[in-house]
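The records we work with from here on pair a chain with its fold. These numbers are not coordinates but entries in a learned vocabulary of local backbone shapes. To see the layout at work, look at the sequence and tokens printed below.

. . .
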Amino acid sequence: MKLQTKLVAVLAGALAVTAIAGCPTTAPPGTTPGGPGGALQGRLTFALNSGSNPGQPLTVRLRSRATGSSANFAVTDKTTQTDNNGNYSFTGLSAADYQVYYDDEGKVAATTFNTAGVAAADPVAVTSTQTAAQQVNLELAWDFTSAVPAPNATVTAGSQVNFDWPEKNGASGAVYQVTIFSTSNTQSGALQTFPAEGAAATQATVTLNNQVTAGTRYYVVKYWKSGGTFGGPNFYGQTKPIPIVVQ
């Protein structure tokens, strides 16, 4: 009897160790057994640079909304850093629609620049039962080696000014719009916006209105997918604020 009791005790202990070693009976929140559930991964690239690698860590952000909702996306507290090659990943996400986006925190354009100030990708649905991580890549390149007007160019208040820009890399079929602001804070009120929303053009000639007064002002070129709206669920973004001097 004593021998039988000892064998039962040894067997029970072995089973306990096995459970602790990696055989949980329930999956952690946001995951499913045998799959990555709630996972999102991809790469941020600079196609204008050699090898498309950013060459430095970048901050990746997420916006979300309820799955299948038509509401606007809201900023989440989910952020992560890429490696130097632009690779990133998120795990343990709740089921929702997500939009991956990049924001360089409002850096003002220098003489030449080749990346967007803000860029967002098409949304994807993340679920807790997916069997593979959702893949979302985001192209940041935008070749403004000859922006018109160039950064810090002088223009005359009330005059006619030509604006010219290249197409956004990795966003075929995009439409564009130019907005002028009084400061580099593009969350502030717009002084003037053109051309009409949805115009598929890469240039515009406009007479500056009386709100674009003397001083350093800033313009951005916005883009989004044809048929959508700026800030909507389809890919969108904008250049860095480009300073011009109004006399």
